[in-house]
Write a structure and sequence with these properties.
There is one protein chain. This protein is mainly alpha-helical. The chain folds into three domains: 218 residues, Alpha Horseshoe (Serine Threonine Protein Phosphatase 5, Tetratricopeptide repeat), CATH 1.25.40; 124 residues, Serine Threonine Protein Phosphatase 5, Tetratricopeptide repeat (Alpha Horseshoe); 118 residues, no CATH class. Helix content is 40%, strand content 7%. The protein contains 21 helices and eleven strands. The strands form five sheets. It has a three-stranded mixed beta sheet, with no helix packed on it. It has a two-stranded antiparallel sheet with strand order 1-3. Strand 8, helix 14 and strand 9 form a beta-alpha-beta unit. Helix 3 runs parallel beside helix 7. It is globular. The two termini are 19 Å apart. The relative contact order is 0.15.
Length: 558
C-alpha cells in the first residue's frame, strides 16, 4: 500500500459558513506535534474535508457515477468513453480507478489521525473535541462507503499510518460495513443538529448517510435483517425531527449563490470563489466545482451563438439517454421537472444575419436563437420559426438537452474552470425517497406512499387557478398499487438526475446490467455481470507484499 499509506501529508480544506468563513492556512506538511495541539486538530479536521473535493462535482467523480448507467451515455468529447462503454480498456490501470482509490485512502488516513489524536489533545473543551472527532468519523464512514460501493471489499485500516507499508489485505464486507455503521452511530451521538460553520457534518447529515448506507447494505451479502427498518426510521427522523423542508419550487433548490443554502439541503460539499482554495492553484486540492462543463450540448457553433458565460462551457461529456428523455420525463403536463431540469431555449449571444430553416434571419442580442421543444413539430410550424429548432429526432452526440442544475454563470470568464457552486450531497428529497423505499421493503406501504408523494407533489405544475393546481397535483400522486422498485428508480432518476448517485442505485438494486443493456446504447453491448464492481488498481496489487495472492483482483479484470 506504498502509494496510499505513505501519504500522510495533510492539505487543508476550506469549509464555508453561512455566518462566517473558516480561516484557513495552507500547509504542505503537518508535524506530529502540531496535530496534537488544538489548532492542529482543527486544521486536521479541515484537511479531512478536502478529500470530498477530489470526487464531487469533477470529471473523475461524475464519470464514475453518472456514466455507464441507464440515464446518461457519452457525448462527443472526452477521454474516458470506455468507462461508459464497458470495453476491455476499462481495466486496473485506468487512471480514474487509481486516483479515486488513492484519494479516498489519503482522506481515510487523515480521519484516522484526527480520531486517534483527539482524545489526548489538551487545552480544548471536551465537547469540542468530541464534535471534531465525530466529524472525522462521519467522513471516514463516507470515504469507506464510497470505496465499498465502487470496489467491494477493500483494505480496512482504522489507525493513522505514519510510514510506508506494503502489507495489505481485503477485509470482509461485513467488517467494512460494521465500521461504517459504528462510525456513523458515534457521530449521531456527538454531532450537533446544526454547526456554526456551514458545511461541517451534523447529526441529521450522519442520520441521512446511515440511512443510505443501510439501504445499500440491505441488498448486499453483508445484509442484516433490520437494515430496511433501521433505514426507514433514520430517514423519517431527518424528515420530521428538524427544520428541513422541501422547497415549493424544484428549480429553486439549485439557485446559485445564497439560494444554494436552503431548507432542503442537509449537507453540501463546499466550494468558493477564492481561486487558491477552490483549486485554481496547483498546490490546492480539487478543481473547484467543474460539473458546469459536462452536461452541455454544443450550442456555441450554431447560428446566433458563441460561447458565453451564461450558457457555459460545452464539454459534451454526458448525453441523456432516450430512456431519460422519453420515459423518465414522459409526463410534461403535470410534472415540472423536465422543464426545470433541461435548458430548452438559447438566446442570441452573437448578433448577425444567418441562414436558418432555409431563409435569412437577422438576430439581435437576446433574440431566441435555438429552441429544443422536446417533441416533433408540425413541419409547417417548424418552417415558420425564425430560429433553429432541434427536435428529438435531430439529437446527436453534440446536440441534446442540457442539464441546468450545475450551470455556473457566476464564473469570472468563459474559460474559467473552477466553479464556485456547492455540491448538494444530501438533500431532503433524497431522504424522502430513501424513506419510501425502506418503508416499502419493511412492509409499511402507507408511509412509503406518503414520502414518495411528498416528492412528487412538490414537482406538480401550478395552474391558473386552484382547480387546475389540484388537477396537476392529483395526477402526480400515487397509491400503493403503483409503488415498486422500478417506480422508485424512475422517481430517483427524475429527481436526482446527474447528482452522482445513479450508478450506485443500479448496483444496489441489482439492475445495472439489465438497465444498461436496455437503455444505454453504447454501454449495453459490452457490459457484463462483473461490472458491478470497479477493478482494484493494479498499483495497489503490485505494491502489496504477496501481490495478487494477498490482494486479489475483482473477478473479470484479471
Amino acid at each position: 500500500m506504498r502509494t496510499i499509506l505513505m501519504l500522510s501529508i495533510l492539505t487543508l480544506a476550506l469549509c464555508t459558513s453561512c455566518k462566517r468563513m473558516l480561516d484557513e492556512e495552507i500547509r504542505s506538511q503537518v508535524s506530529d506535534e502540531y496535530l496534537s495541539t488544538p489548532e492542529g486538530l482543527e486544521d486536521g479536521v479541515k484537511a479531512a474535508y478536502s478529500t470530498l473535493r477530489t470526487f464531487h462535482a469533477n470529471e473523475l467523480g461524475m464519470t464514475m457515477t453518472v456514466f455507464g448507467t441507464d440515464t446518461y451515455t457519452m457525448g462527443s468529447d472526452g477521454s474516458y468513453k470506455f468507462i461508459n462503454e464497458y470495453t476491455s480498456q476499462f481495466d486496473p490501470r485506468t487512471t480514474y480507478v487509481r486516483d479515486l482509490w488513492n484519494n479516498l485512502y489519503v482522506g481515510i488516513n487523515t480521519c484516522n489521525a484526527v480520531i486517534d489524536r483527539a482524545p489526548d489533545v489538551a487545552d480544548m473543551p471536551e465537547e469540542q473535541r468530541n464534535i471534531r472527532r465525530s466529524e472525522a468519523q462521519f467522513l471516514r464512514a463516507y470515504y469507506y462507503f464510497t470505496l465499498v460501493q465502487q470496489y467491494g471489499s477493500v483494505h480496512l485500516t482504522t489507525s493513522e499510518t505514519k510510514e510506508a507499508t506494503t502489507t495489505a489485505s481485503r477485509a470482509p464486507l461485513t467488517d467494512i460495513y460494521q465500521l461504517i455503521e459504528d462510525d456513523l452511530r458515534a457521530a449521531i451521538q456527538n454531532l450537533p443538529a446544526e454547526q456554526t460553520d456551514y458545511g461541517r457534518a451534523t447529526k441529521p447529515a450522519a442520520e441521512h448517510l446511515l440511512a443510505r448506507v443501510l439501504l445499500t447494505r440491505a441488498s448486499s451479502e453483508a445484509a442484516k435483517d433490520s437494515d430496511y427498518r433501521d433505514a426507514a426510521v433514520l430517514a423519517e427522523q431527518v424528515i420530521t425531527g428538524y427544520n428541513f423542508h422541501l422547497l415549493e419550487d424544484f428549480a429553486a433548490v439549485f439557485e446559485q449563490g445564497a439560494g444554494e443554502r436552503n431548507e432542503e439541503v442537509i449537507w453540501a460539499v463546499q466550494y468558493t470563489k477564492n481561486a487558491i482554495t477552490n483549486g485554481a492553484d496547483a498546490d490546492a486540492d480539487g478543481t473547484g466545482n467543474s460539473a458546469h462543463r459536462y452536461f452541455l450540448m454544443e450550442y456555441d457553433v450554431l447560428p446566433g451563438m458563441n460561447r458565453n458565460i451564461q450558457d457555459g462551457q460545452p464539454w459534451k461529456r454526458f448525453m441523456p439517454t432516450n430512456y431519460t428523455l422519453d420515459v423518465l420525463f414522459a409526463d410534461r403536463v403535470n410534472d415540472t421537472r423536465y422543464k426545470k431540469s433541461f435548458k430548452d431555449v438559447f438566446y442570441c449571444s452573437k448578433p448577425g444575419t444567418y441562414n436558418v430553416n432555409g431563409k435569412q434571419v437577422t438576430y439581435a442580442l437576446g433574440d431566441t436563437a435555438i429552441w429544443l421543444p422536446g417533441y416533433q413539430l408540425d413541419p409547417v410550424v417548424k418552417a415558420s420559426k425564425n430560429f433553429m429548432v432541434i427536435e428529438p429526432q435531430s439529437y446527436t452526440k453534440k446536440l441534446y438537452p442540457t442539464l441546468t442544475k450545475f450551470l455556473d454563470p457566476q464564473r469570472p470568464d468563459i474559460n474559467y474552470e473552477f466553479g464556485s457552486r456547492d455540491f448538494l450531497a444530501f438533500r431532503l428529497a433524497e431522504t424522502c425517497l430513501i424513506a419510501a423505499e425502506a418503508f416499502m421493503y419493511s412492509g409499511d406501504m402507507d408511509k412509503a406512499v406518503t414520502y414518495m408523494n411528498m416528492v412528487r407533489a412538490r414537482a406538480a405544475y401550478n395552474g391558473t387557478d386552484e382547480a387546475e393546481d389540484a388537477t396537476h397535483r392529483q395526477a402526480m400522486l400515487i397509491t400503493a398499487a403503483d409503488l415498486n422498485i422500478d417506480f422508485i428508480l424512475e422517481e430517483r432518476g427524475r429527481e436526482l438526475l446527474g447528482e452522482q448517485l445513479r450508478w450506485y442505485d443500479l448496483v444496489r438494486t441489482h439492475q445495472l446490467v439489465t438497465r444498461v443493456q436496455a437503455y444505454n446504447p453504447d454501454g449495453g453491448k459490452n457490459i457484463k455481470d462483473y461490472h458491478v464492481l470497479r477493478p482494484i488498481p493494479q498499483d495497489q496489487i503490485d505494491r502489496t507484499e504477496g501481490g495478487s495472492s494477498s490482494f486479489p483482483q475483482n473477478p473479470g479484470y484479471n
